[in-house]
């Protein structure tokens, strides 16, 4: 009865029958063990949750995005809280050949592409409660154009034969392309449509400032996507990303003004950029923050480098986080990116 009472806010958008079915299925999912299947749900749902009822429920067209938002606004939303919009993709392995959207997706847990289903989730993460509340969950169904682009990208990474390599230098007839007008990949086009729909739904209630994504989106096109949606991007760069200090030397007297200075050496970072040093056991952690340039990004980036050193073996490792908000403090940037794992 407690679950049914919580679902009363959904009554204007779904039928009373659907609400009762949801209450039985939610109860079954909370208490059941093993993999969630329709047969398993029917066995744990008890009275009112037969297998045919579960089948009818999953055959019903339900506006899930709207229901997630209505439930969040009614029971969870706090006006004095700050929320981050976090996105991530999850892959569920699946055998067979006839499931809708079945494809091969890269799964980080396996470290390789696996056959299964992929789902992209957009979630609101509370900075005070430090919890994630999924608002929109969409199945990833790759188009033929996206599959072709993925194959072309993989083929471009393969080493070419010696005779097939092009001559050094710039190809004849090539022209400069403004970086701010970068074209979106099919994947970003799909995510942009979900972002626009979500922002339109929550407009006037929550004002979002930051979009937090993982290292897969640590590129110029993803940053432009976030800026077009009116948000700043927080993501991770590759550990070997080519970052440069802004050039502060004198003008050479001819030609364009020099933009890029010395390349960042992750093993010898400048002391004036050091923000914090902590030691736990034999692990020393140093946090650096500065504004750096990347040749794939048209504007400076707010970069935070977290360097860890093993004081016994002197082994060194580092993580490079960045944001398009140049005024964001290093502590908040690290904390906001860490909240991504709540999803």
* Cα separation of the termini: 28 Å
Shape: globular
How many strand segments? 12
Could you state the order of secondary-structure elements as H and E?
HHHHHEEEEHHEHEEEEEEEH
Number of helices: 9
- Helical content class: 25-40%
Structural class: alpha+beta
- Contiguous low-pLDDT stretches (5 residues minimum) are none
Major pleated sheet: 12 strands, mixed
- In round numbers, the mean pLDDT is 89
Strand content: 25-35%
What does the radius of gyration come to?
24 Å
Outline the fold blueprint.
Blueprint: H1 2-6, H2 16-31, H3 38-45, H4 51-58, H5 64-75, E1 83-93, E2 103-107, E3 112-126, E4 132-140, H6 144-157, H7 186-202, E5 210-212, H8 220-228, E6 232-237, E7 243-246, E8 260-263, E9 274-280, E10 283-294, E11 301-310, E12 316-323, H9 330-338
Parallel strand pairs: 1-5, 5-6
Antiparallel strand pairs: 1-3, 2-3, 3-4, 6-12, 7-8, 7-10, 9-10, 10-11, 11-12
Helix pairs in contact: 2-3, 3-4
């Amino acid at each position: 009865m407690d679950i049914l009472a919580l679902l009363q806010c959904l009554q204007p958008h779904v039928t009373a029958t659907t609400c009762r079915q949801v209450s039985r299925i939610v109860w079954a999912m909370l208490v059941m063990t093993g993999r969630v299947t329709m047969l398993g749900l029917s066995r744990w749902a008890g009275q009112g949750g037969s297998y045919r009822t579960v089948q009818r429920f999953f055959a019903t067209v339900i506006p899930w995005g709207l229901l997630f938002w209505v439930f969040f606004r009614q029971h969870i939303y706090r006006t004095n809280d700050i929320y981050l919009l976090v996105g991530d993709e999850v892959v569920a392995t699946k055998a067979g050949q006839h499931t809708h959207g079945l494809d091969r997706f890269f799964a980080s847990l396996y470290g390789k592409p696996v056959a299964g289903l992929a789902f992209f989730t957009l979630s609101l993460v509370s900075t005070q409660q430090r919890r994630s509340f999924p608002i929109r969950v969409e199945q990833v169904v790759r188009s033929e154009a996206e599959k072709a682009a993925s194959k072309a990208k993989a083929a471009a990474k393969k080493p070419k034969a010696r005779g097939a390599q092009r001559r050094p230098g710039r190809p004849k007839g090539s022209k400069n392309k403004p970086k701010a007008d970068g074209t979106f990949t099919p994947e970003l086009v799909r995510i942009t449509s979900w972002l626009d729909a979500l922002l339109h739904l929550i407009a006037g209630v929550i004002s979002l400032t930051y979009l937090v994504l993982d290292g897969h989106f640590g590129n110029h096109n993803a940053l432009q996507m976030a800026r077009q949606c009116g948000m700043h991007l927080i993501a991770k760069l590759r550990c070997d990303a080519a970052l440069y200090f802004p050039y502060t030397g004198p003008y050479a007297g001819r030609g364009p003004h020099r933009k890029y200075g010395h390349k960042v050496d992750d093993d010898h970072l400048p002391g004036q950029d050091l923000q914090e040093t902590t030691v736990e056991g034999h692990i020393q952690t140093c946090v650096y923050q500065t504004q750096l340039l990347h040749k794939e990004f048209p504007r400076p980036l707010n970069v935070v480098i977290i360097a860890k050193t093993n004081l016994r073996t002197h082994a060194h490792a580092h993580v490079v986080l960045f944001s398009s908000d140049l005024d964001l403090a290093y502590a908040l940037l690290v904390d906001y990116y860490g909240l991504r794992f709540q999803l």
